[in-house]
């Protein structure tokens, strides 16, 4: 709690955190509006292929180009990125809402959603790269516990609000569109809060680069070179590479479970019943996961004072294996809510430790690329898990064999991560925290 009070006392940290929390509340509302429209529509039943295809379309393409954004995050004012990307997102959300209101469930809708999510990852990568500029180096674990966890919790709360707005408007196409417009208002508010920070507060450490229109080709070549350099830089830092690998492994199996949960609630637990009832009970699972996210912020900082961060990641992956094997095979709603809580806590703890490792072990002029790679690993493996399991996933979602495979998979990722990361260098390896972060506590 002492560390939390120190972090919270920093005015710039509070502003950065407020920007994240308002924006991610909008993310939760947006996701709820989109999810009810696609997966809990009264006129359609989701199947494994359609659900996995939706994940691939929404998460794959922009994740592949995400590292390109990272080079710009290392060159442009991150405060300006936060301000204008949030505004741009609100415009794309309005476009998406218009398509929903017209009843469009085809390619134009997916393209519009892709634009919203693509800008959002650019926004979130900038937040992660900016954090060391407003939190002292020895308080980064606490900063990473409070910031992403608070954002994730607000996203879940936003999801619940979104479900309420959607239900209040009649669970119709127009209702989903109204829900999205509420999310758009959150993005405008986040932009206004980001604008209250000084332009050069969040880095990058050097002078932000200006890209003239005539320099586009040269800039693209620089981006490509920067990507190669960034990958080489991270690979040479064993701890950072192991953290990225653990993130990918965790998200791969979580992607399978996420698709399975939608099918179970829609096609198994509540098949033949009004979709709105399935949607409501699925909301309880979301609340359980969000509660786990929140608890991770309380559990992870004291845990990292007793164990190394690689050990914490390994422990949480092993806990995910145990929770999946113990509760997953029951195919009961109460055990699944407990499992959701456990996976939410473990997954967020892995994220806190992984992001802290990247921030500690990588120099500031590589952090933008590192967190773009992190986002790519976070999202592509999630979609890949859903896609790869399609041939083995029944329409009802009930598959004891698949649950067993997931539990074993989590355990294997834990073993591989421990083997790869236990001898990695400690904080500061391969690029110490820059002086601006170290000076925060004295400002």
Give a written overview of the molecule.
- By secondary structure, the protein is mostly helical.
- The chain has a single domain (10-204, 230-427), classed as MFS general substrate transporter like domains (Growth Hormone, Chain: A, Up-down Bundle).
- It contains 15 helices and no strands.
- The two termini are 20 Å apart.
What characteristics describe this protein?
single chain, mainly alpha, 443 residues, Growth Hormone, Chain: A
TL;DR?
By secondary structure, the chain is mainly alpha-helical.
CATH class: Mainly Alpha
In CATH, the topology is named Growth Hormone, Chain: A
The H-level CATH homologous superfamily, spelled out, is MFS general substrate transporter like domains
Number of domains: 1
CATH architecture tag? Up-down Bundle
Main sheet characteristics: none
* Average of pLDDT: 84
Number of helices: 15
Pick out the low-confidence regions.
425-443
Strand fraction: under 5%
Give the helices and strands as they follow along the chain: HHHHHHHHHHHHHHH
Give the fraction of residues assigned to helices: over 70%
**What best-fitting shape do the alpha-carbon axes yield?**
globular
N-to-C span: 20 Å
Number of strands: 0
Output the structural class.
mainly alpha
Could you tell me the radius of gyration in angstroms?
A: 21 Å
List the helices and strands and how they pair.
Blueprint: H1 2-8, H2 11-39, H3 48-73, H4 78-101, H5 107-130, H6 140-168, H7 173-194, H8 216-235, H9 238-269, H10 275-306, H11 309-328, H12 333-361, H13 364-388, H14 400-421, H15 435-438
């Amino acid at each position: 709690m002492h560390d939390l009070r120190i972090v919270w006392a920093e005015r710039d940290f509070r502003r950065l955190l407020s920007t994240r929390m308002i924006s991610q509340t909008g993310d939760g509302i947006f996701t709820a509006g989109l999810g009810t429209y696609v997966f809990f529509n009264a006129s359609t039943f989701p199947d494994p292929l359609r659900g996995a295809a939706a994940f691939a379309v929404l998460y794959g393409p922009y994740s592949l180009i995400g590292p390109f954004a990272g080079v710009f995050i290392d060159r442009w004012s991150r405060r300006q990125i936060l301000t204008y990307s949030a505004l741009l997102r609100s415009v794309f959300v309005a476009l998406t809402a218009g398509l929903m209101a017209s009843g469009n469930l085809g390619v134009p809708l997916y393209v519009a959603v892709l634009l919203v999510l693509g800008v959002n990852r650019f926004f979130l990568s900038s937040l992660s790269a900016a954090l060391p500029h407003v939190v002292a180096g020895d308080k980064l674990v606490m900063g990473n516990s409070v910031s992403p966890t608070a954002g994730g919790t607000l996203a879940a709360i936003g999801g619940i609000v979104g479900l309420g707005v959607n239900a209040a408007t009649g669970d119709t196409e127009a209702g989903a569109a109204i829900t999205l417009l509420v999310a758009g208002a959150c993005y405008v508010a986040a932009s206004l809060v980001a604008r209250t920070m000084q332009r050069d507060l969040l880095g990058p450490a050097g002078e932000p680069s200006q890209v003239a229109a005539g320099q586009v080709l040269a800039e693209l070549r620089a981006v490509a070179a920067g990507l190669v350099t960034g990958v080489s830089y991270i690979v040479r830092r064993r701890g950072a590479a192991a953290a990225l690998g653990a993130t990918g492994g965790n998200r791969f199996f979580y992607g399978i479970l996420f698709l399975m949960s939608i099918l179970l609630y829609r096609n198994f637990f509540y098949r033949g019943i009004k979709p709105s009832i399935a949607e409501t009970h699925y909301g309880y699972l979301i609340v359980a996961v969000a509660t786990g996210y929140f608890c991770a912020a309380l559990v992870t900082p004291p845990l990292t004072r007793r164990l190394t961060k690689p050990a914490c990641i390994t422990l949480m992956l092993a806990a995910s294996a145990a929770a999946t094997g113990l509760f997953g095979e029951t195919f009961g709603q109460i055990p699944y809510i407990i499992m959701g809580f456990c996976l939410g806590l473990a997954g967020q703890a892995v994220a806190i430790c992984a992001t802290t490792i990247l921030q500690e072990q990588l120099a500031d002029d590589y952090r933008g690329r590192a967190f773009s790679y992190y986002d790519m690993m976070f999202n592509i493996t999630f979609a890949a898990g859903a896609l790869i399991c399609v041939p083995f996933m029944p329409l009802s979602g009930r598959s004891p064999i698949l649950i067993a495979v997931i539990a074993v998979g989590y355990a294997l990722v834990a073993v591989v991560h421990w083997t790869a990361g236990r001898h990695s260098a400690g904080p500061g390896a391969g690029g110490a925290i820059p002086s601006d972060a170290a000076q925060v506590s004295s400002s």
